Amino acid sequence: MRKITSLLLLFLCTSITFNGNAQETAVTKKVEQLEQQKEEITEQEKKALKEEVASINERLENGVITEAEAQVLKEEAAQKRALNIENRVAIIDNRIALIKRNGADAVELDSTEFQPQILIGFGGKDEDEDRIFGLRFREYPGRRHPIKYDRRTYSDFLMAVGFNNAIIDGQSLDDSPYKLGGSRFFEMGWQWRTRVFKKSNWLRFHYGFSFQFNGLKADNNQYFVQNGDQTELQEFDVELRKAKLRMDNLVFPIHFEFGPSKVYQSENKIRYSLRRQFRMGIGAYGGFNMGTRQKLKYTRDGDDVKDKLKRDYNTSDLIYGLSAYAGFDNTLLYVKYDLNPIFKDAAVEQRNISVGLRFDFD
Questions:
Q1: Sign of the CA dihedral 75, 78, 82, 87?
Q2: How far apart are CA 157 and CA 35, in angstroms?
Q3: Residue 194: partners with Cβ closer than 8 Å, 6 or more residues away
Q4: What is the rounded CA–CA span in Å between residue 259 and residue 280?
Q5: What is the domain partition of the chain in residue ranges?
Q6: Percent of the chain topping pLDDT 90
Q7: How far apart are alpha carbons 220 and 218 in whole angstroms?
Q8: If 0-12 CB within 10 Å is exposed, 13-18 middle and 19+ buried, where does residue 290 land?
Q9: Kind and range of the H or E element at 194?
Q10: pLDDT digit string, tens, across residues 246-266
Q11: 292, 285, 280: which is closest to 338 by C-alpha?
Q12: pLDDT of 87-127, one tens digit each?
């Protein structure tokens, strides 16, 4: 019994010594990390000051401010960065003092409080009015990057919806075999908008990518049939409730956009806003077809039947065309026209046309 008790005491002492050494190592390592952060703070603030001075010099060269105003702004920036270093280093010193005084428990608490942040938000805005697309990591809470004085490029989400049909050689739109109200399109994508001129925002260059879904709903109880290299409409053997062909495309549109904008300017930044402003754009797009499918709905022998047929239907692989829009604020009248034929090697060429509303969520 004495032997067992001695072994337990020896194990307990060894464990206490090991745990004590581990805790001491954790404290020492954490303090070293914090001391390194103090050096990084000075470098960060110096870099930020350098960027601010460069922005001030740019405004001076452009004639936005005078030399005297530039000098005042530089002194204010230097004073601000010096105070930032002082305050941020003081925070680190307090953290070091807390850890040294309370040991390993304070190390765990400190690590929890200063975890990196993950910002999540499709289309949300950060502190510099940038759109957040997906995930964005920020090293520590409260750490802000210097605000860029002049941003020439913005990004935003776009969506469009409306009516779809086809321009057929030798026929008017009134004679179209597709239902005018039942054929529709939907488009969504992401775009970037860059100001073309340095000191004016009346002309912008738009570019990005979009997913287009163009639907054609056949009229007069007809449906699409692929006969070799020809795709044609034929009458169905029972009454159809729906016969719709849908083409899914990925395209890369580019537009030149025109229109006025409002200017908001302060000591730290200048921004051009398109809110409550008229705008119009003209451009083109190009891409490829991702897939084509037909959906049929009908009743046979008392049973409701839904057929989904996915095949080539001889639709064009390459998609290209012209597009334009015009409107007020974020709501725009939108027109797009495919220059490529809907069906390859067709006896009579057909080209897709869409008219609807476009929404730019900038």
A1: positive
A2: 43
A3: 152, 153, 204, 205, 207
A4: 7
A5: 2-114, 153-361
A6: 46
A7: 7
A8: middle
A9: strand 184-195
A10: 999 999 999 999 999 988 877
A11: 285
A12: 888 888 887 787 777 765 555 555 555 555 555 555 555 55
